[in-house]
Specification:
Layout (H helix, E strand, L loop, with lengths): L17 E5 L1 E6 L4 H5 L6 E4 L4 E4 L6 E4 L2 E3 L5 H17 L4 E6 L6 H5 L4 H4 L6 H5 L3 H16 L4 E13 L2 E4 L10 E4 L3 E4 L5 E3 L2 H21 L8 E14 L2 E13 L13 H28 L12 H5 L9 E8 L6 H15 L2 E5 L2 E3 L3 H18 L1
Parallel strand pairs: 2-6, 2-15, 7-14, 7-15
Antiparallel strand pairs: 1-16, 3-4, 4-5, 8-9, 8-12, 8-13, 10-11, 13-14, 14-17
Helix pairs in contact: 2-6, 6-7
The structure holds adenosine-5'-diphosphate (ADP) and magnesium ion.
Magnesium ion binds next to helix 3.
Length: 394
């Protein structure tokens, strides 16, 4: 493919384990669907693979945006994994906290990018090679994590993986792996970071089992939403992997723990006024609350990156509070903005591109999360890091 020789994203990690990097922002254009073809769809976006830019033909002002990576409709799932999924998973395995977020209007391809064609819609093809080719980022990331861990395991090197899966709907956090837990509380702990009280964490040891857990959670999400007459496009899904490695270096146990958030956001489209009455209005209001809070947090972080002093309103929504460390904090973050190619979606596409462009301007400070028990030199480093953190909080 024409993009094959492009550098993958997140290749800027320095060897000393700390990295002051921009958030990586990727745009993916999906192919036209059947309906768009039938009604005589017109393309409103053009991708320049060599410039990593995308132009939108919205009159009176056509506009061009540049990103870390831009994928057109020809770019397949494997290539998206190699360009986007693999580098951030490598960072996770090195001990960085990571976050991969799919953003975009409903129908733009968020779920296709994160998990692939869903079994509900295409159950008959689930076992065919064609389905395997269409696997999305999450199953590919799981295959890769376990494959690398198996390759690196030795008597001095051990790994462990846990996963959890939650949904934020109407500003309520529900555990998708435990349908009884529908209103959980997010807490902040200075050492452990953000955590959700009572959220099931499942110890997993193969990619198949982990993906099974994910699929089960997605099914709970789908069934629960349908039963309550709620639209799943209005919920945020957060699948989290916790990867731990223990490395025995000459009797000193070097332990790394990293968290990897895989986020399928609610549709970013503006709610139509005619639909927003009663319960729907409340839903639309709170969906807007989490997504608009995300926009506001990013705006504040961009200001800070430009040297201004700003309060970052993480606490304004469940989503931004949960992702506090991932946004502007100690984390590597990749945003995939999904867009439709059709001119009838051009306003939403423009709004997605503007959001993505803003996200590009914020900076994260990521460090490897490492404890070395019993090593006084490293304890000194830890204390230095904590002192820096305290200074930053003041
Ligand atoms: P979203 O999750 O953003 O609402 P989906 O991922 O469900 O959107 O995508 C909508 C439809 O378009 C689905 O039928 C999906 O299979 C299809 N689709 C999305 N992106 C692609 C792509 N890159 N290639 C092929 N089909 C796609
Ligand atoms: Mg979806």
């Amino acid at each position: 493919s024409a993009a094959a020789d492009t550098e993958s994203v997140h290749s800027d990690t320095s060897s000393n384990g700390s990295c002051n990097s921009n958030v990586q922002v990727v745009v993916r254009v999906r192919p036209p669907n059947q309906k768009e073809k039938e009604v005589g769809y017109r393309k409103c976006v053009a991708v320049d693979l060599s410039a990593q830019s995308i132009s939108i033909n919205l009159m009176p002002h056509p506009r061009t945006f540049k990103f870390d990576y831009v994928a057109d409709e020809q770019v397949d799932q494997e290539h998206i994994f190699n360009m986007v999924g693999k580098p951030i998973t490598d960072a996770c395995l090195q001990g960085y906290h990571c976050c991969l977020i799919a953003y975009g209007q409903t129908g733009a391809g968020k779920t296709f990018t994160m998990e692939g064609p869903t079994a509900e819609s295409e159950a008959s093809v689930a076992l065919m090679p064609e389905f395997q080719q269409k696997k999305g980022l999450i199953p590919r990331i799981l295959d890769y994590i376990f494959q690398r861990m198996a390759a690196e395991k030795s008597k001095d090197m051990e790994f462990g993986v846990k996963c959890s899966y939650l949904q934020i709907y109407n500003e309520q956090v529900a555990d998708l792996l435990d349908p009884e837990s529908t209103n959980l509380t997010i807490h902040e702990d200075l050492k452990a970071g953000m955590y959700v009280e009572g959220l099931q964490e499942i110890l997993v040891s193969t990619p198949e089992v982990t993906y099974g857990v994910f699929r089960k959670g997605s099914e709970n999400r789908h069934v629960g939403m349908t039963a309550m007459n709620q639209e799943s496009s209005r919920s945020h899904g957060v699948f989290t992997l916790v990867v731990e490695s223990k490395h025995n270096v000459g009797g000193v146990m070097n332990r790394r723990i990293s968290r990897f958030y895989l986020v399928d956001l609610a549709g970013s489209e503006r709610q139509k006024h005619s639909e927003t009455v009663g319960i729907r209005l409340k839903e639309a209001g709170s969906i807007n609350k989490s997504l608009s809070a995300l926009g506001n947090v990013i705006k504040a972080l961009v200001d800070i990156s430009e040297g201004k002093e700003r309060h970052v309103p993480y606490r304004d929504s469940k989503l931004t509070f949960l992702l506090k460390d991932a946004l502007g904090g100690n984390s590597k973050c990749t945003l995939i903005a999904n867009v439709s190619p059709a001119d009838k979606n051009s306003e939403e596409t423009l709004s997605t591109l503007k959001f993505a462009q803003r996200a590009k301007l914020m900076r994260n400070l990521a460090v490897v999360n490492e404890d070395m028990f019993g090593n006084p030199a490293v304890m000194g480093e830890e204390i230095k890091k904590l002192k820096l953190e305290i200074a930053a909080l003041r």
